[in-house]
């Protein structure tokens, strides 16, 4: 069992930056990839970014490439993943979800955007960007 908890959302203005955090605890001895998805009102959940367990590979949706950066660190047996979001626009407004791909094979560029490979999800954190 893995618990996933996001934090760091809020209300910002267009052009501002925000950093989201995601703490995965529980089965933290495992090596698993993690990802970020988002869902705007009236729209389907979409992939944002993902990172392998080692952090040696990162993946991004085209809509955020060059503006968002995903990273992770391990401290005190807790995996933490960050999503640094720069140059935010109103189109980035959404609930952002963090997810852990625990049981399947290591995530790849091809699989990372598939929400079905992620086994545990957080409850989401709201990001609102005003114009």
Helix % is: under 10%
Low-confidence stretches: none
Number of helices: 0
Order of helices and strands: EEEEEEEEEEE
Structural class: mainly beta
**Major β-sheet profile:** 7 strands, mixed
**Distance separating the two termini:** 40 Å
What does this structure look like?
It is a single chain. The protein has 131 residues and is mainly beta. It is built from no helices and 11 strands. Strand 5 (46-51) and strand 6 form a beta hairpin. The termini are far apart.
Architecture blueprint of SSEs:
Layout: E1 2-7, E2 10-13, E3 18-26, E4 33-39, E5 46-51, E6 58-60, E7 68-75, E8 78-85, E9 94-101, E10 120-121, E11 125-130
Parallel strand pairs: 2-11
Antiparallel strand pairs: 1-3, 3-8, 4-5, 4-9, 5-6, 7-8, 9-10, 9-11
Descriptive tags:
131 residues; mainly beta; 0% helix; 51% strand; globular
Summary of the model, kept short:
With 131 residues, this protein is mainly β. The chain has strands at residues 2-7, 10-13, 18-26, 33-39, 46-51, 58-60, 68-75, 78-85, 94-101, 120-121, 125-130. The chain starts with a strand and ends with a strand.
């Amino acid at each position: 069992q893995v618990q996933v908890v996001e934090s760091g959302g809020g209300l910002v203005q267009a052009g501002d930056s925000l950093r989201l955090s995601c703490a995965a605890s529980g089965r933290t001895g495992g090596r698993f990839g993690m990802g970020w998805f988002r869902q705007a009102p009236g729209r389907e959940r979409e992939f944002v970014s993902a990172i392998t367990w080692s952090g040696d590979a990162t993946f991004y949706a085209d809509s955020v490439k060059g503006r968002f950066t995903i990273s992770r660190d391990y401290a005190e047996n807790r995996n933490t993943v960050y999503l640094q979001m720069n140059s935010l626009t109103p189109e980035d407004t959404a609930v952002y979800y963090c997810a852990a791909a625990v049981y399947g094979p290591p995530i790849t560029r091809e699989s990372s955007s598939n929400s079905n490979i992620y086994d545990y999800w957080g409850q989401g954190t709201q990001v609102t960007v005003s114009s």
